[in-house]
């Protein structure tokens, strides 16, 4: 069934919004790269399986970073896959460093940039050393904000610095490159004025940014609600608030609420099936018994 959104937009605009061309180009590229194998079962089946994997979110597994971050759906799929694969770390209470979390990310995306991992860790650790330990849930929600809203946060950093310097932030330039190469960002020195910037002015700048940005931004209404109780805030204080806000998490739609973070019945069921299928089976041994009558008999024992 077509969604109401599909019916309200012109065809080309809807296709562009859903990045259909990105997936068509990738599918054709995969088809040409594996044409010898695909010829055995047909092109139609290949496209069916490809777009089923896109719908299920498994299409980003072991792909290059430029593809993983190419669309909002890809980013959300990667976040959900990372959570489902490694949630047992949080369930067991394990604490890891930024480097160790980066190794986990590279298991799913071999060329995942360390820079993004470090930025996510900085949201959690603030002024602590980067080799400090972090819980899975703290890192995951910080990583979600940093990864999914990467371009938005680049512009927010510029706005924050402009406000600190007393400049007009309306001249901020929104990032336009989606090639996966992220500009080096100097962490805002929010220790200069310890109390940060005026929250209401900061929000007005963010609202203007979201209105003109071509990239994913958190819902303005939720950001306004989040900042409504603050008079002033620092840059990393804002990032931490974003990471902890469950309304923004629900709007993004990749991860469950924090209270349900370690609950995944579907994955648990699959793991149980896998465990039962691969668990060693008991072998039957033949044991010789010698009854008093002298007649030997064989009995099976497990």
From TrEMBL:
Stretches the record annotates as Disordered: 272-302
Organism: Patagioenas fasciata monilis
InterPro entries attached to this UniProt entry: CSTPP1 (IPR038968)
Descriptive protein name: Centriolar satellite-associated tubulin polyglutamylase complex regulator 1
UniProt function note: Regulator of the tubulin polyglutamylase complex (TPGC) that controls cytoskeletal organization, nuclear shape, and cilium disassembly by balancing microtubule and actin assembly. Regulates the assembly and stability of the TPGC and thereby modulates polyglutamylation of the microtubule, which antagonizes MAP4 binding.
Any one Gene Ontology cellular component term annotated for this protein: centriolar satellite
Record CDD domains: DD_C11orf49
Protein family: Belongs to the CSTPP1 family.
PANTHER family noted in UniProt: CENTRIOLAR SATELLITE-ASSOCIATED TUBULIN POLYGLUTAMYLASE COMPLEX REGULATOR 1, UPF0705 PROTEIN C11ORF49
